[in-house]
Amino acid sequence: MMEADMRRAIAHKRDGGELDAETYDAIVRASLSGEIDDAQTAALLMACVLRGMTFAETHALTAAFVASGETLVTDDPRTVDKHSSGGVADTASLVVVPLVAACGIPFAKLSGRALGHTGGTLDKLEAIPGVRTDLAPERFLAIVRDAGCAIAAQGPRLVPADKRFYALRDRTATVPARGLIAASIVSKKIAGGARAIVYDVKVGRGAFVPDAESGRALAETLVRLTRAFGRRALALVTDMDEPLGRSIGTGLEAIEARDFLSGVRRDARLATVCRALGGALLRVAGYDGEPDAALTDALESGRAFATFEAMLDAQGARAGALAALAPAEAPAIVRAERDGYVRAIDTVALGERARDLVAASGAGAGIVFGARIGDRVARGDALAETFGGDAASVAAVARAVSIGDDAAPPRPLVYGEIEAVSDSAARASDTGEASRSMLESR
Ligand code: URA
């Protein structure tokens, strides 16, 4: 594509027009090869943000992204993957991957790193000494075959165009457009080879999606797009107004997953979401049996924990490393400053603080959070523990907890499951409406 063609495409999109699949394909190829420069690509991205993208355009961009690299081929048609739109204390992947694999469903999980205040599954895994996530595609698929599951980084061979576009979006404030987000997420899942995918769209103060309504719309786009590529899909919309599990920080979250799978300690909120995700994954994989009973059996028999150990072993964990993981010594206790009810938790502040603690003091540092929204507390009660920090961290965590006189109204933990796309949502995304409304709600 020549510079003049790209200028015409940008102007067409700027004026509210729709670009066809051939144009998106040419743009992605030209951007990757350097034929068109970042200024033009960024201008087009901004036009997509401001004008919205139709479903056909989103599909075209996704297809162009997938075509920019290799696509893995998994040999078992039941192979699954999951994606979380990002949260705090979201340890679900470390629990659900071996749990579902222990039910006999192959799990080929491609993961990302921390983004902003949210944690990254790769960082949590790498907190276990020896574990590698930079697996070549052939090695990744071999571990899925042998251990039942693997968790790896996407690597340079899959969807290189997304890497380039995502970095540009990050620099040019063009991330929050539903079409761009969906193309970015779904292209990576399609290229990863899974035949069935479950999306966990997080909504609330600690999420990138502010409310359940925009979460539902994004979930519908993800499901519709994934199905358009011939893969099965489901999406859950789940709460991220407060941390999901108890632990925030790479090593602490690995410890929480270990203890959950081995039965030492299971947080109720984390358990509810893991069960909902595990059930959805088994159903979308076509599991032949009752999902809830299968998950219980995999967990209680110890098979899920053994599968976790086998996966870590195959990915290079040093002998005894998982068992030896421990929080940093001498935690400090964060106490309630008054009597009342926990009304709100600044989940973003907690995620950011935990990231800083890990950066300063290593993988054993972070926050273990005890309080939940709705809890009744008395002045001086323990709300949380900080590991590897100082008095400033304790004060920051205390500030993140709002205590008031009345209990906050209860909220759902799982807002719903999206299997199909409603007619009105399909019409809205066909005209680009849905994409714009997400931007407006930010
Ligand atoms: N996660 C992604 O992979 N891509 C986006 O655009 C947003 C979140």
Compute the separation of the termini in Å: 34 Å
Architecture per CATH nomenclature, i.e. the level-2 architecture of the largest domain = 3-Layer(aba) Sandwich
* Number of self-contained structural domains: 3
How large a portion of the residues is in β-strands, by DSSP E? 5-15%
Name given to the CATH homologous superfamily of the largest domain: Nucleoside phosphorylase/phosphoribosyltransferase catalytic domain
What is the count of β-strands? Answer: 13
CATH names the topology of the largest domain as Pyrimidine Nucleoside Phosphorylase, Chain A, domain 2
Oligomer description? single chain
So what's the CATH class of the largest domain? Answer: Alpha Beta
Determine the fraction of residues in helical runs and give it as a percent range: 40-55%
Ligand species: uracil
Low-confidence stretches: 434-442
Descriptive keywords:
disordered C terminus, alpha/beta, about 450 residues, 13 strands, binds uracil
What is this structure's SSE topology?
Elements: H1 3-14, H2 21-33, H3 38-51, H4 55-67, E1 80-84, H5 92-101, E2 107-111, H6 121-126, H7 137-147, E3 149-153, H8 160-171, H9 178-191, E4 196-203, H10 212-228, E5 232-239, E6 247-248, H11 250-262, H12 268-285, H13 291-300, H14 303-314, H15 321-324, E7 332-335, E8 340-345, H16 347-361, E9 366-369, E10 376-377, E11 382-387, H17 391-399, E12 401-404, E13 414-418, H18 423-430, H19 433-440
Parallel strand pairs: 1-4, 2-3, 4-5
Antiparallel strand pairs: 5-13, 6-9, 7-11, 8-10, 8-12, 9-11
Helix pairs in contact: 1-3, 2-4, 4-9, 5-11, 5-12, 5-14, 9-10
The structure holds uracil (URA).
